[in-house]
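Notes from hallway chat w/ T.B., transcribed later so I don't forget. T.B. wanted the structure written out for a chain they're using in a teaching module, and asked if we could keep both sequence and structure tokens in one place. Agreed to drop them here.
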Amino acid sequence: MMAFKYISFHYLKYFSVILIALVMFLVGFDYMENADSLSQSANLVLIYLVYKAFFAIDMLLPLSLIFAMVSTKIFLIRSNALVSFYSLGYSRVDVLKPFVVVSSTIVVIFISLHALPSFSRADEFSNNIRKNSAYLSPTKDLFFIYKDKYIYFSQMLPLQEKAKGIRVFTLKENSLKEVVIAKEAIYRNESWHIAKADIITKPDNMSYESLGIKVDHKEGLNILHGFRPKMLDQVYEGKVNFTIKDAIDALFLLKDQNINTSSIKGALYKIFVYPFFVPCLVVIIFFFVPISARFLNVSLFSFGAILATLLVWGVLFMLIELSNNKTISSEVGVVAPVLILFLISLRQWRKYRLAT
């Protein structure tokens, strides 16, 4: 217990310092690059920096956990604390446990933060502030299929939960049957409510004897049940930064429509699976470090550990981007690499546990 508290304290200390330093570096560098294109409003600039900080945390927290483990291990070696723990009867696995427990706990908290839109969509919000001076920009010319109907929104305002320029096309036997035209729709009670609409109906039999096209005026139409504005914006604009709830809702909703859900599955894998490469890599790197500075070139080891971490993180990031662009499947791009790292770390853990 004494070793656990001591190691955990120093691990958390190094993690906090490294994360704050990396976040400040990224946010500061971004601000210097984009300061001229930002609004003159101090409030918007502050909100922009906060969202950029959230995005930096989302991107750099996994790296910070691994860098902190390397820094803590070097501190333990240089202070001879590591040798002392081994002399007191602690095994390598006992010394490793605080790193695994603390990193896994932080990863779980990190995953839960993706339930918040301000965290999971921070990059999108900050880019909107830079380009449009508003953290949610309207989506234009949205055209999609839902329940065998083709739906067009000329403009959608996710923040106001409103859409303008509505067209709903209904097909029957590959022929246009009906068109619903409305000026606007408002999201209310889990569906999109149209106050007034014109319904144009085409006759089944197009001939000189048919009655011709019929135009009706109708009030109180409800369409797109269960499709929240933010979900629509994310799914049909091809964005991949979902909140947990939006991603799960969209996955079940689109499955019923026989629509490809690979991008949504990839987003869920990125949220729930990708962060766990951290404890796996912590275990793998840990066992490569000797117990004393006599057997270790600290500078060389630090360089090698940081380089290996960046290499693994870069490969994972590249595979995630490839899966987002549907070049490879999300299972290959996200799940498989983390599973491989888990199996390697599990082998290392069992090897040294049995050795002690």
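Follow-up for T.B.: The beta strands are 139-146, 149-157, 162-172, 175-188, 191-201, 214-223. Might be a good example for the class.
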